[in-house]
Amino acid sequence: MHTSQKRGLHTTADRIKLHFKDSKGTLIKTVEANEGDDILSIAHEHDIDLEGACEGSVACSTCHVILSPEYYDLLPEPEDDENDMLDMAFALTDTSRLGCQVKLTRDLDGMTVMLPSATRNMFVDGKKPTHH
Amino acid sequence: MTQMKLAIIGAGPSAFYVASRLLSLLPHASLPALRIHMYDRLWAPHGLVRYGVAPDHPEVKNCTHKFDTAATDPRFRFFGNVNIGSTPISPIPHSVNLPLSSIFSNYSHLLFATGCTLPTLHPALPPSAHCVPALSLVHWYTQHPSRPPPPALDRITHVSLIGNGNVSLDIARMLLSSPSDLAKYDIPEHVLDVLSRSSVKHVSIIARRGPFEAAFTVKELRELMNLPEASMVPIDPSALIPSPDVKLTRQQTRALQLLRKGSDKSLGTTPKTWSLDFFRSPTGLAPPTSSSPLAQLSFAHTTLDPKTNRAVSTGETSVLPTSLVVTSLGFHSDPMMSFYDPGLGHLRTLSGRVISSSGTALRNVYASGWAATGAKGVLASTMMDAYAVADTIISDLLPKGEEANTTSVPPSPSPEPSLQTDNDILMNSDPRLDGVPPEIEVTLKGGLVTGYEDWKAVDIEEVRRGEATGKERERMGWEEARTFLAQSRTATS
Predict the structure, then answer these.
(1) Are residues B213 and B127 in the same domain?
(2) Does the model's ipTM exceed the 0.85 cut?
(3) Cβ distance of B218 and A53 shorter than 8 Å
């Protein structure tokens, strides 16, 4: 389980900017966070509609986010357990990660975090999951 | 409409995700006024999260925190131990019965979130002393109120699981794990007791098709491969070569890597073993005789028909001696349910709206989760489906042109032009907002029907009792819970 880092006396220079966007690319909110914070906790702190059913314990895929390729490549590879959950994520892409497993570092400043396609697609596409 | 008094039948994750979504999208102070009454035939809420998830998967159950939050909303009420149906027959003998007509007359809206509660059986393997559905084992190790008998594991050496989905792998893992490793989890003491006296040496996980058609997910396969006390019989490498013209999915590719690598412990180094047996379709089960102490499970060998991707017989047969056959072949909804479609195995819906047998959408009657989609999907897909159904409910409720505050989701389209809304109105368009059906009203002081605060008191007590043995929680059955709640009420009155 992840807990956000304590807020010390951080200056503006220490803060990392993230742009949360919806699946169409529309900006939802730009936020600032600290090194070591994970994307799920950051989203919740700023009232962004990113679900986290298992609360950061890599037992679901509801915090699935899509990152821009150049930032995705800066992250360490997902572990097996994260990849196992990503297998199940709806609308998985090559730059998908679980938000709870992405911890911020300074070089991620300015990263775009896109929330995947919304629930409406379940009925429009008729996509049925096949595992339980 | 200026109000929605919604009855939800079922209190599992689908029900709670719909409720939670409606409560957050419709603010307290504004119209339409909202009330949600959630019913479950079990005394404890949360459905499969409590009575389906394996004991060694505690993280999955974190989703209940969100359900707890929804339940604190004053517009929400939970009624446990209430069986709603057109027939009073329930597998839970102690539940209170409420006819569906009472729901129609006391509520303006109805959501079926009743799941797929019946196991799909194998035509060649009827239940017997040597053949049980997987659901009865899951109900045994989760202490489900239907209280199936425990398997006689002290007299069982070989278990044959028919089906290779995650339920099958869960059962294999429970049988192959060491009880001391399981002891810290949410697993009843009597279950641990039976497991500690188990003589199971081998578990065969049998499927009629091949590795690329397997229903398990990589997480569950990996857990089996990593077991410290069980090793897998290596799979013939020729069975793990994909045909060149088929593009494997990400999941198939990752499963293939695991299958090739095999189990962490090699065969022969562990007290227990397991195997994935592909291309075997059961044709019958002969009980033990005086000359053969094990039952005999007979198979037709199969291959894949390249055109249909279905299993077809090769003509070859074989027999496998086994102590217990467990069929794990999926689930379907109760055929006695209103609006059940026998062709589908679940309720008939479109965009969450229940469709009558004449093809019209029933006004203000909805279904979500496995009751609407069939028994497929994990929490993530359940959540997405539930949110989509909640959006449909809201868009049907609000006047045209208005939208609730759905972040990035447009409201559901109104029924397609060819889909008529039924002219009959089943529900009550003007129910008493805070009224409870009279049949339930009379039971409320008697302690037969549980409220959410009753569940929370039991929840806290189960965790407290678990602390005594260093485990996550020690579950209570209905009689224990009822006694505990009665004592708590006396103590505080």
Answers:
(1) yes
(2) yes
(3) no
